[in-house]
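User: Can you predict the 3D structure for this chain?
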Amino acid sequence: MNASTPVAPSSARATQSVRAGYALFILTLINLVNYLDRYIIAVALPEIQRDFGINDAQSGLLGTVFIIVFMLASPLGGFLGDRIPRRLLVAGGVILWSLATGASGLAASFTALLLARAVIGIGEAGYGAVAPSIISDLYPREQRTRMLSYFYIAIPVGSAMGYGLGGWLTQTYSWHAAFFAGGVPGLLLGTMAFFMPEPQRGAMDGPDAAVKLPFMEGLKGLGRNMAFWATTAGYTLMTFSIGGLAFWMPTYLVRERHLWLEHPGRVGLVFGAITAVAGLTGTVAGGWLGDKMDRKRAGGGLWLSGIGLLLAAPCMYLAVNLQDTTLTFAAIGVAQFLIFLNSGPINAAIVNCVPPAFRAFAMGLNVLCIHMLGDAISPTLIGQIADMASLHTAIAINAVPVLLGGLALLLGAKLFREAVPREQVG
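Assistant: Here is the predicted structure, written as structure tokens:
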């Protein structure tokens, strides 16, 4: 066969596509299990409180300790992800958090359970910071937003599965069984992750992409990268708002709207179903539209995210001011759709506006910021506003960070072209 025939290149592209698809599939399943494991404890909590005799403040520590360890360990996970084979970091992190999830079911005391939750945070940090950088090296820029959106579909689906599976196992068997079941899939997926392809850093960013970068030089460059910081600011404001909304909205619907007072668990079920549907459809739509907008203009996907948040803000305000229950749930659904629209575009913008050699650390630093200044503090602050005024007022005010986040993302879109190498933006 003549060496000039296109068969060999075509075969190589097909092989690359299969390898990339396998890695994306494994990473997405891991992300699904990630959120499944996170939310099992939410539905198992009443039984845990009964068995250990702990109060609400102590119970809250189970969530607080996890998020603090996770956000503090994420930059370290990103630092390692820029320097060692990322598949090893992913596999090790998944296996560690899965073992810790299983150990949660073995916990014989509140202290042991608290320690297990902290270890879960360490394992998730090793995975969460590097997975988007792997995907960015498997797919070209014109496909990244869509592929990252597939990855982030796991957030609403995994969360809903955590509520559903955790609730069923806790009710049917025990909260111990729920944690045991949650740990098994991660052990299998972590083993499979050892066999994922390890793409070269910057493989899809052209021959001039920086694949090795001294840490301090990269840190200085990131400090001057205004597109990264504007995007992170918008993402943080969005995370602050939706973290508070997820925590307080079911309570608001029961306490102030008096919905299903005899069966308050039904509110959580309905709210969870709306979140799952809006999250799934919004994430898919955001990936498709984000790629389309990025092809039209540099930072187009980020511009889409900004517009999405600007539209979500009035929907969030209406959700607590509409008297009709059906319209209230409709407003909640639309707001969540518009918020989840941003999952792919925001994360694609972050990996696209930093050098390939510094992407994992940039993602880890982003994780630190969005949680430390976002959903780690918003439930408490919203609760304080509710104590001073009312829960209605607190949730209505919660629309303001979404509005400000939209403006920050529009600024980030404007700055994006300056941060991306010229050959990438054409």
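Residues 1-7, 422-426 have pLDDT under 50 and may be disordered. The CA atoms of residues 202 and 356 lie 5 Å apart.
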